[in-house]
Amino acid sequence: MSFNGGVTDTNITCLTFSDEFIYAGSNRGNIFRAPVNSLPLGVENLKTVLPQSFTLQQNYPNPFNPTTLIRFTLNKNSFVALEIYDVHGRRISEPLKNYQPAGSYEIPFSGSNLAGGVYFCRLTVGGLSESIKLVLLK
Known about the structure:
By secondary structure, the chain is mainly beta. Helix content is 0%, strand content 54%. The protein has strands spanning 3-4, 12-17, 21-26, 31-35, 54-56, 67-74, 78-86, 91-100, 103-110, 117-125, 128-136. Strands 1-4-3-2 form a four-stranded mixed β-sheet, with no helix packed on it. Strand 3 (21-26) and strand 4 (31-35) form a beta hairpin.
């Protein structure tokens, strides 16, 4: 049985603690020992912050019949795709697919030729997407 300061085995089968040390045993009979005060006590919580290049707001009115406004803001000039999907994931409308300058937009959407129910609006800008739920009352 070896007693070393570094783990060379990838199959650790046992961990035990004392007040001063942590011990790890492997299936090959090796034991790793390290002072408890030399080991990390936790994992830092890192937040991934994606650059906010656009904001999609809830449509108004919602529920709607037969028209609503879909509002969004672009922080920079971008290619924009605004798509409406039914609950089965089928795209039923694409009110906007164009390069747009930075600014605020209100895009009217009519559900006059659709059945009442739930629909989803997806805004895609520069490879990032946000979605909102639309409710059409008939």
